[in-house]
Amino acid sequence: MATAKKAPAKKAAAKKVAPAKAPAKKAAPAKKAAPAKKAAPATKAPAKKAAAKKPATKRTPNAAFMKAMTPSPQLAAIVGSAPLPRTDVTKKVWEYIKKNKLQDATQKRVIVADAKLKEIFGKPRADMFEMTKMINSHLK
Hints:
4% strand; mainly alpha; single chain; elongated; 6 helices; two-stranded antiparallel ribbon
């Protein structure tokens, strides 16, 4: 048992060994001492006021999106022939898609076009991100 106690002691001693340090450099002698400047009198900085939070205001929509635009005859079959802003046209197209269950069941981003939407999209399936671009081409 005496040998079992000595082995941990040797490991502990080995861990305590510090790496060798480089010798310190001597400071170079000062050439010429410059006259000391007078310190400015200490003044307290004014306390910063807490930033006042602005009350929540309703965001105003961009005028370009709210301009009423006339839909093409193909788009009018879905949203109606009255001039509407682009935002309302997109909302009505989404209502039509959800009402007729035209979203792909596995990929919700993909819209499967029926006869009316195929005239607008120009293809049988469209991604929801490209849908807005295709709808905008049918607005004047």
